[in-house]
Specification:
With about 750 residues, the protein is of the alpha/beta class. It contains 18 helices and 37 strands. It is an enzyme of class 3 (hydrolase).
């Protein structure tokens, strides 16, 4: 017994030692912030200096000079600790953050039939370059046709990289640049690629990057469709703008070290707009690589558009909340793809589908639900269905946990002949169409509840699935997508996020020939276009619109373009009713839709804009509980003077208001507007208050003698007596208007942080 116990103890000690050894020596990618000005004269470049501080030159992944000051390196924890303590020039070290993707009717829906129809933006938008950070590009897509495009702008300093599956000659006057950044990803994957399809190349083997880049600036392609659905002319928002793609997302996600390197390069390459349909959790701005890179872009006049995330309708789920980026949520179009389930009890259930196969004939089939190999058979997870039960039948699957298209594949592989995917409370009444591998439709929660009850109560329930193609002029629209992430902003609650919503449900755009439309390996279909949903799809809409505004108003700053899109956004749908939320069909609010749905026609001439300088953003950062070191990490300056900081972050000259009372009853903000309309203009204010808050604006009238003139006004918000501090929020608006313009700012009120 003693010998056995001793042996067991020895094994335990050895196992523990090996675990600790592996744990302490395991290498990771770290991002290292350095005092840029400390470089000794003995080193010619910062790259040489950084390399000298590492044990091995191969440990250095990227040197950052523009979007960030420092480098990224592949180190173990001991090396990282040693590096931080070895030099006063090393200011901060943190692990490489992982971000995820936020996955042709829209021009007409947005009123872009002819590039606004009032300005000749064709020639001027030729000079606009939109940089897209995503999964790369499929250059053979017809959406990158460069017919009649003039020569590439001389300001362009970028490249089209060759790779094992990508020839630099594939770029042209439309797709002018293509680069890939994979060092962070490769290190996280053990030094190589985790998928046989991936290589060091800008080639898009996922489809997402081709979809987003063609949405932003794809050339017009006639007779486009997705397997017969959404037929028409497919085109991006800025059809004459140039596209530069930066591949930063790979099979396991998008790493901050790669994103920073791409942003660094894109700024130096000369892009005018950066579009990022990706993001992660909320982090302080000094640890948010996207926010850090975007600050440098903004300072150099580059507009940055980011997706809000797909974690809705969960409260406080919005990502990419830095005030110097445009944060974009998603709404529906006035186009739908209806499908029906004709039940054996005579009822007809309405849903949506992009199924394009031969169908299931005219004979109803038996329905089954929640019967299989495990308790999770209701979700149709892999391995959960018993083929002896579902073979030859239609399976009802609850939405959630695994991908929607995977559920259809699980049903098909188990022998099922059809599927009805029914929403639960988490997704409410939102309907997203998918191109399943078998006849399948998606239905909302209420319809799903009726369906589940029918299957349970009928001894032999049956259904016949019917597909009706494409329908236009759907009412009401837009509706806020249930998946679209919501405020309040958890990093700085005094800044309202998201900023706007744009089209993000069932969007047709270009696709990669390397993968089927479902993204599943077993999907052998290939199509030039695909229909996708997500804030990933709404973000490039705004990126393209920003490019058009940049062409129309080259003198406008990124914050002026952002203001124009925000203050002209609308909050009434095509039935003239307030915007609704697809999650539960309730009225939407600014935590879901921000300032509203973008209206590019009105944004072209907003009347007034809220401009914000770099110095004002620094005053904003100084008002946060950040150290000077943290602020320097974001603004990349040798030192920062916070003597003129805002007393409240909400004092930033933002086009919307988010009032956090906390323990106060009175909050007062001053804003400054710039006249970009006509000379001799007069605007009067209209206040739409909230039940628990009094709002007063002084002055109540703004008179402008000239274009470019600036005027200030002050708003006082008073929480009425007797209002208890609760988690509830209330909303209102402040609108400056004259016969030609309405400049609207939403206001959100909260009494505690979250």
């Amino acid at each position: 017994m003693a010998s056995s116990s001793s042996s067991s103890s020895s094994i335990t000690i050895i196992t523990t030692f090996l675990f600790l050894l592996l744990h302490t020596t395991a290498k990771k990618t770290y991002i290292i912030r350095v005092n840029h000005s400390d470089k000794p004269e003995s080193f010619l470049t910062h790259h040489d200096w950084y390399t000298s501080q590492l044990n091995s030159e191969s440990s250095l992944l990227y040197t950052y000079t523009t979007s960030f000051h420092g480098f990224s390196a592949y180190l173990d924890s001991t090396e990282a600790d040693s590096l931080l303590s070895s030099s006063n020039s090393i200011l901060d070290i943190f692990e490489d953050p992982l971000y995820t993707l936020h996955t042709t009717r829209t021009p007409e829906f947005l009123g872009l039939n002819s590039e606004f129809g009032v300005h000749d933006l064709g020639s001027s938008s030729n000079g606009v370059i939109i940089g897209v950070l995503d999964t790369g590009v499929w250059p053979e897509s017809r959406s990158f046709d460069d017919t009649d495009m003039p020569e590439i702008p001389s300001k362009w300093k970028g490249e089209c990289e060759s790779g094992s599956d990508f020839d630099s000659k594939l770029c042209n006057k439309k797709l002018i640049g293509a680069r890939s950044f994979s060092k962070g990803f490769q290190m996280a994957s053990g030094g190589g690629f985790s998928s046989k399809r991936e290589s060091v190349s800008p080639r898009d083997v996922d489809g997402h990057g081709t979809h987003t880049s063609t949405t932003a600036a794809g050339s017009a392609v006639r007779n486009a469709s997705f397997l017969g659905y959404a037929a028409g002319t497919a085109r991006g928002m800025a059809t004459r703008a140039r596209v530069a793609t930066y591949k930063v997302c790979w099979s396991t996600g998008c790493f901050g070290s790669d994103i920073l390197a791409a942003m660094d390069r894109a700024i130096l390459d000369g892009v005018d707009v950066l579009s990022l349909s990706l993001g992660g959790g909320s982090a302080p701005y000094y640890r948010d690589t996207i926010a850090i890179g975007a600050f440098s872009a903004m300072e150099r006049g580059v507009f940055v558009s980011c997706s809000a995330g797909n974690s809705g309708p969960t409260r406080a789920s919005v990502a990419n909340v830095a005030p110097w980026v445009m944060t974009v949520g998603a709404g529906t179009l006035d186009r739908d793809f209806p499908a029906f389930a004709n039940l054996g009890n005579g009822k007809r259930l309405t849903g949506v589908s992009l199924y394009s196969g031969v169908g299931m004939g005219t004979k109803p089939l038996e329905l089954v639900y929640n019967k299989g190999n495990s308790s999770s058979s209701n979700l149709c997870l892999p391995g959960s269905l018993d083929s002896s039960i579902v073979r030859g039948k239609i399976v009802v699957c609850d939405r959630g946990v695994n991908a929607r298209v995977e559920k259809g594949a699980v049903v098909r592989d188990a022998g099922g002949l059809g599927m009805i995917m029914a929403n639960t409370a988490a997704s409410g009444e939102e309907l997203v169409a998918d191109s399943h591998l078998l006849p399948a439709i998606a239905v909302g929660k209420k319809t799903g509840d009726l369906l589940r009850e029918y299957v349970k109560s009928d001894s032999k329930p049956t259904a016949l699935l019917v597909f009706k193609g494409t329908v236009l002029d759907v009412k009401p629209s837009p509706v806020v997508a249930a998946f679209s992430s919501r405020g309040p902003n958890t990093v700085t609650p005094e800044i309202l996020k998201p900023d706007v919503i744009g089209p993000g449900v069932n969007i047709l755009a270009g696709w990669s020939d390397a993968i089927g439309p479902t993204g599943l390996d077993k999907d052998s279909r290939r199509t030039q276009f695909n229909i996708m949903s997500g804030t990933s799809m709404s973000c490039p809409h705004i990126s393209g619109l920003a490019g058009l505004l940049k062409a129309a108003h080259p003198e406008w700053s990124p914050s002026a373009i952002k203001s124009a899109l925000m203050t002209t956004a609308y909050v009434l749908d095509n039935t003239n009713a307030p915007l609704h939320d697809a999650a539960d069909n309730s009225l939407s609010n600014p935590y879901a839709h921000g300032s509203g749905h973008v209206d590019p026609q009105k944004a072209l001439s907003p009347g007034l804009v809220y401009d914000i300088s770099t110095e004002e953003y620094i005053r904003f950062l100084c008002s946060l509980d950040y150290t000077v070191d943290h602020i320097v990490a974001i603004v990349k300056r040798p030192s920062v003077n916070c003597s003129k900081k805002f007393s409240d972050p909400g004092q930033l000259n933002y086009p919307s208001f988010s009032v956090l009372f906390g323990g106060k009853r009175v909050v007062r903000y001053t804003r400054e507007v710039t006249n970009v309309g006509a000379a001799s203009s007069v605007y009067k204010v209209t206040v739409n208050g909230a039940p628990s808050v009094g709002i007063s604006v002084k002055p109540s009238k703004l008179s402008f003698k000239s274009v470019g003139e600036k005027k200030r006004y002050t708003v006082t918000f008073v929480s009425k007596k007797g209002v208890s501090m609760t988690n509830k929020a209330e909303f209102g608006s402040i609108t400056w208007s004259n016969p030609q313009h309405e400049v609207r700012s939403p206001v959100a009120f909260s009494w505690n942080r979250f």
